[in-house]
Amino acid sequence: MAALVIAEHDHGTLKGATLNTVTAAAACGGDVHVLIAGHNAAGAAQAAAQIAGVTKVLHADGASLAEQLAENVAAQVLAIASNYAHLLFPATAHGKNVAPRVAAKLDVAQLSDVTKVVSADTFERPIYAGNAIATVQSADATKVLTVRTTGFDAAAASGGSAAIESIAAVADSGKSAFVGSEIAKSDRPELTAAKIIVSGGRAMGSSDKFNEVLTPLADKLGAALGASRAAVDAGYAPNDWQVGQTGKIVAPTLYIACGISGAIQHLAGMKDSKVIVAINKDPEAPIFSVADYGLEADLFTAVPELVNAL
Amino acid sequence: MKVLVPVKRVVDYNVKVRVKSDGTGVDIANVKMSMNPFDEIAVEEAVRLKEKGVVTEVIAVSCGVTQCQETLRTAMAIGADRAILVETPADLDLQPLAVAKLLKALVDKEQPGLVILGKQAIDDDCNQTGQMLAALADLPQATFASKVEIADGKAKVTREIDGGLETISLSIPAVITTDLRLNEPRYVTLPNIMKAKKKPMETLKPADLGVDVTPRIKTLKVSEPPKRGAGVKVADVATLVAKLKNEAKVI
């Protein structure tokens, strides 16, 4: 049987997390199909058909799917779920919202944040904020997974030529409605996809200082900006910049932590980065225990110096 | 309307857990346990809704071992009116689907207007139970809530999504899961802890609710995450830049 990837998209284009999920789906064995549930989403369906390794794209187009409400998207997945051995969602806010709803309706357990596919029924996933890795086996007929995107390489976005099949869109549940959204505007690379991340903590002191000190460094490196929970709670940075157990999980090539102590919950979100640099004036800060390069210095002098040296 | 607030007893968030040497799990013997932080936020929100006069009764629920009574007492000290413990054996691996089924049975019994849960438990990091309950009870859901307003038989909920915020409106009854920024839970005071001891607590078994709690997922092994190689401390910015360029080759 095939594996179905529930694509994350903005109707016109695919979100990057979908590509990592396709790689995980291929590892489960069998054909890989992609579901585009959206409204006027032909663009996303075309993009999905180009992904290397995808053999079929199912395209459900309807107004009920325009706002990606959990009730409707879950119903759309359930309409075709019986054809699949594996249902895979990216472990993003959207995937996490919908996947358990699908699993419960199928009366199967769900596996969250899978980081490795060991075999078709056995998977690895982190628990306790990444302080332990559990190898788990599912006894259910259908495996519903959310995929931690940093655990899998992205599938090539081109080279595929899957057929696109239209399927009927589900009716609106009538139980929920979209009111509005506030999406933070940013010219920077997306946090979860960035190669380099510059992150600030409570020691930044204020929102102005955060921008004044870290923005030039991020600009110089073409990096995304991140933050610890302390910095977000203090209002120094918007909450979608938060890296950690309860925020984004990132694994860039280079992660520069400035004025971040390195609490367990923060490390859970970034310790799979390839190279970690810590700039902190406290020699005892736990961040130094995971940093490849530690600089014990006042960030307000060290970061501008670093910008000049680059 | 009534509000049902499920709470979970977990290893305290400040504890760094250790994996058992035989690979069967993490060592939680003699480790400090507390209420899951997201659940504290859920109880606080329910109590605030009661203080606003929107809600008449707050019922805290926990599923698990006898010691979950302490967690329920904490919920009542924050302001929950009564508690229900669904007691399960200590050797049972209670998983989100089973908890969602137990909660579904309680929703049928108590008929709450809202169920407010934490978005995830910090031990299994699943982020499933609220969504599963919503599915089983066929209720609308608002996950990762950072703001909740109740008016005209609807719940207007602002959610934290990747990239920003989204507001949705749900018909009541509904299921809401809390994100960190929904509120700042209050500290429990000694007089309230004393009062909580007198509040009613009902104890049930899964069989009383007609729910099969057999685990569906088998844990084969729990291991330590790969260790990072020991890092070095550099003396100054120039050395750092040189190392990043020549040794790590990342810039």
UniProtKB/TrEMBL annotation, chain A:
Residues 3-182 form the Electron transfer flavoprotein alpha/beta-subunit N-terminal domain. It comes from the Bacteria. PROSITE patterns: ETF_ALPHA. Pfam families: ETF, ETF_alpha. Transmembrane segments: none annotated. Keywords: Electron transport, FAD, Flavoprotein, Transport. Belongs to the ETF alpha-subunit/FixB family. This is Electron transfer flavoprotein subunit alpha/FixB family protein. It comes from Pseudaquabacterium terrae.
UniProtKB/TrEMBL annotation, chain B:
Residues 23-213 form the Electron transfer flavoprotein alpha/beta-subunit N-terminal domain. Keywords: Electron transport, Transport. Pfam families: ETF. Belongs to the ETF beta-subunit/FixA family. This is Electron transfer flavoprotein subunit beta. The lineage of its organism: Bacteria, Pseudomonadati, Pseudomonadota, Betaproteobacteria, Burkholderiales.
